[in-house]
UniProtKB/TrEMBL annotation:
It is found in: Cell membrane. The keyword Cell wall biogenesis/degradation does not apply. It is a multi-pass membrane protein. The keyword Cell membrane applies. Its main location: membrane. Pfam families: VTT_dom. Belongs to the DedA family. The chain crosses the membrane at residues 28-49, 56-82, 128-149, 156-177, 189-206. Residues 49-174 form the VTT domain. GO terms for cellular component: plasma membrane. This is DedA family protein.
């Protein structure tokens, strides 16, 4: 419970935690940023770490002169690319075994086969769009690996998606993160960065399911 409370507080007040870290440890903040983004995107069991909000706050802190913008963006880009690549590799390694599993409380073959078919058709676009969706961005590269998406194709969309995600949100934070209105409503903005993409993903999944059921009927 204490760990969960800390994570929630860290996510909702990430600006204060990062500022405290910069004051206490200086340049080591770049190592912390690399670790957070790499673990969130590269370790399948860690989807709850901050992503979009972290990028926005880092951009804002760079705009306020607390960090170097170019260095922060390079570190975050490398972490995002390597994280997805690691996640994809894990999926490729265990994918053949996964497809041999029977239905159980931990695995639904029908749902997984739907994901497999989806990646065969929309894998590239999914890798890019998933960058902006909490939780989904952690599992998208893994499923891409399990679905046997070619490494060259995955790497291309991985790099493109990372550039759009990191530079897009980071730059937005750099230019707008220190505006008085943004600072006054920062917690609401962080909630929005977490909830809105997630709700869009849930709606998209529900809509796709309805469409598939309608075609089968």
């Amino acid at each position: 419970m204490e760990i969960a409370a800390f994570l929630i507080d860290f996510i909702l007040h990430i600006d204060k935690h990062l500022q405290d870290f910069v004051v206490a440890y200086g340049p080591w903040v770049y190592a912390l940023l690399f670790l957070i983004v790499f673990v969130e995107t590269g370790v399948v069991v860690m989807p709850f770490l901050p992503g979009d909000s972290l990028l926005f706050i880092v951009g804002a802190m760079c705009g306020a002169g607390l960090m170097d913008f170019s260095l922060a963006m390079v570190v975050l880009l490398v972490a995002a690319i390597l994280g997805d690549q690691c996640n994809y590799t894990i999926g490729r390694m265990i994918g053949p075994k996964v497809f041999q599993w029977e239905d159980s409380r931990w695995f639904n073959r029908r749902a997984f086969e739907q994901a497999h078919r989806f990646y065969e058709r929309y894998g590239g676009v999914t890798i890019i769009l998933a960058r902006f969706m909490p939780f989904i961005r952690t599992f998208a590269p893994f499923v891409g690996g399990v679905a046997a998406m070619s490494r060259s194709k995955f790497t291309l969309f991985n790099v493109v998606g990372a550039f759009i995600w990191v530079l897009g949100i980071g730059t937005a934070g750099y230019f707008f993160g220190n505006l008085p209105w943004v600072q006054a409503n920062l917690e609401k903005i962080i909630w929005g960065l977490i909830l809105v993409p997630g709700l869009i993903a849930i709606y998209g999944s529900w809509h796709a399911g309805r469409k598939e059921n309608a075609l089968k009927a």
